[in-house]
Amino acid sequence: MSLPQDIKRIKYLPTAFVIFGATGDLAQNRIFPALFKLYKSGLLPDQFKVISCARTKHTSQEFREIAERSISEKDKEKFPAFYQKIEYLPLDVAQDLNLPALAQKIDSFEKGINTCPQRIFYMAISPAILEDAVGNLAKNNLHVGCKIHNNKPRIIIEKPFGQDLKSAKSLNNQLAQFFSEEQIYRIDHYLGKETIQNIFAFRFANDIFESLWNNKYIDHLQITTAEYVGVEKRGEFYDKTGALRDITQNHLLQLLTLVTMDEPQRFEPKSIEDKKLEVISSIKKLTAHEVATSTVRGQYEGYLREEKINPASQIETYALIKLAISLKRWQGVPFYLRTGKKLTGKVTSIIVQFKPKTHQFFKNFWQKPLPNHITIQIQPNEGIGIRLVSKKPGLTTQLEPVDMEFCYKTSFDVPQPEAYERLLLDVISEDQSLFLSQKIIEESWKVIDPIRQVWSSGNPPLSIYKPGSWGPAQADKLIEADGRQWLAPILTICKI
Ligand code: BG6
Question: Domain named Glucose-6-phosphate dehydrogenase NAD-binding: which ranges (predicted)?
């Protein structure tokens, strides 16, 4: 949804919103709260039905109470009219049990409102059953949509999109048999975050930065997603996935793409997609030797004692990879992408470090020139900081770094929508700008697969790190060997 006038249009879009996996964590923690907030902000269509499906037997009334409990933990206000929009239908989409009843429910909604609603299928189910589930939707003709208005259903898929290039292609092929690319919405929820969308505005609406955004001025980039939490209750999934596939393949590569892509010609999905593809397909694929020398994989101490983890697991909970982009603009600029669980705190940030200037003029006032850098802090304490050099007040000339800061909280006195609110609204209003295409996903697996392959042969060895630290010591060694160091990824700003 790019323009304010789209909001008006949404009110008049009758919608049957079907959630498969409605009793699961994703639905309860993210989807229902997001729908509820949209409703509260008056942004859901007037004729909107949520058909919630899962295997467990519940009546609609029982399920409404479950949904209400999960929402009211986060939001104390109650809006009974919202819960009346929710219906429940026990079925098994992977085993093709009771799907005709879903078709009937949609039909009866259609009859009740006397028009053809748009159909949205949210596949909030395990990736392992996704292909079967898609096949069963088609078997029951649910992929067809309305006969009268040629209103084709949309399908929402969550990451991970496959486990590697091969399985991602197979999933895409399965989807493509029944849904066209315009009907498929692949969610990477980072793209729905307000601060990530601001990267476009920051880069392309401020000419002062764009002219410096190249290898002449930029020394390197550090992109970090650090989490304080461990694997929590997701051991079974995580132990098969690891940090590289859970975060680097999607969230971190997306951040890298947004911060390095050229300006699209127009603010529309196709233009944006072309520029993204240009950069993501230009990421150099690491050789086995580079994987051994330019990556670090770590595991936090105590991981092997977590629930549902193989006690001899070699899976990484920390991943650092150093990448290069072969486009002229980025030649010679390294990109350090790191992520880990049980680190010292929760933060996602991008730091752009500029090349140090060897000013003749100031040569007697500093031992080593102080480089400028820009920090785009995505979460928490959202903001942007620019590190400048200043004369310290006093009778002598001393130079010191100072921070110039912009904080969302103080600059805009409006609440920030959650990523899922924005993304669901975009699906309802048929805007794919913030979703991933098949091509982008395939390109990102091409970067990740060679690393994964070498890692699975035990190279480089897994480094154990202490919970609450910044990860393995090898990560410091890797960047220090390049004559660089990690910059604090947390801005001191915006804490108020
Ligand atoms: C998910 C990962 O995609 O992102 C999780 O599967 C991770 O492991 C989560 O915890 C982090 O998301 P956020 O929005 O809290 O940064």
Answer: 18-198
d(CA 235, CA 239): 6
* Cβ of residue 246 lying under 6 Å from some atom of ligand 1: yes
Q: Map out the domains of the chain with their CATH numbers.
A: 4-158 (3.40.50.720), 191-425+435-480 (3.30.360.10)
- Kindly state the average pLDDT of the residues 380-397: 88
Are the C-beta atoms of 192 and 378 separated by less than 8 Å? no
Once rounded to an integer, what is the mean pLDDT over residues 305-331? 97
Chain centroid to Cα 126, Å, comes to 18
Which of 6-15, 94-103, 413-422 has the highest mean predicted lDDT (pLDDT)? 94-103
How far apart, in Å, are the Cα atoms of 349 and each of 302, 440, 445, 487? 27, 22, 23, 11
Q: Once rounded to an integer, what is the mean pLDDT over residues 449-466?
A: 97
322 marked as binding residue: no
Distance CA 249, CA 254 (A): 8
Q: Considering 143, 149, 220, 251, which one is annotated as catalytic?
A: 251
Q: What share of the chain is helix, strand, coil (3-state, %, to 5)?
A: 40, 20, 40
Q: For the chain, give the percent of residues with pLDDT over 70.
A: 95
Give me ligand 1 centre to Cα 303, in Å.
18
Indicate the top mutation candidate among 186, 246, 444 to test ligand 1's pocket, ranked by most ligand atoms within 8 A of CB.
246
Please give the C-alpha separations between residue 118 and each of 87, 137, 308, 391, 392, in angstroms, as whole numbers.
17, 16, 40, 61, 62
Specify the DSSP element, H or E, that contains 87.
Answer: strand 86-90
- Rounded CA-CA distance 316/339 in Å is 10
- How confident is the model over 184-210, as a mean pLDDT? 92
Identify residue 73 by its one-letter amino acid code.
E
Q: Is 251 a catalytic residue?
A: yes
Q: Position of tokens 């020398």?
A: 293
Using CA atoms, how far apart are residues 472 and 335, in angstroms rounded to an integer?
Answer: 18
Residue 144 has pLDDT above 70, yes or no: yes
Under a CB-based contact definition with an 8 Å cutoff, are residues 459 and 291 in contact?
Answer: yes
Q: By the 8 A CB rule, do 310 and 193 touch? A: no
Model-level pTM? Answer: 0.93
- The DSSP string of 406-445 is EEHHHH--SPPPPHHHHHHHHHHTT--TTSB-HHHHHHHH
| C-alpha 9 – ligand 1 centre gap (Å) | 32
The two beta strands, 48-54 and 86-90, are parallel
For 326, counting Cβ atoms within 10 Å of its Cβ (0-12 exposed, 13-18 middle, 19+ buried), the class is: exposed
Residue 250 CA: nearest ligand 1 atom is: 3
Expressed in angstroms and rounded, the spacing between residue 414 Cα and the centre of ligand 1 is 24
Burial 199-220 (b: 16+ CB within 10 A, else e): bbebbeeeeeeeeebebeebbb
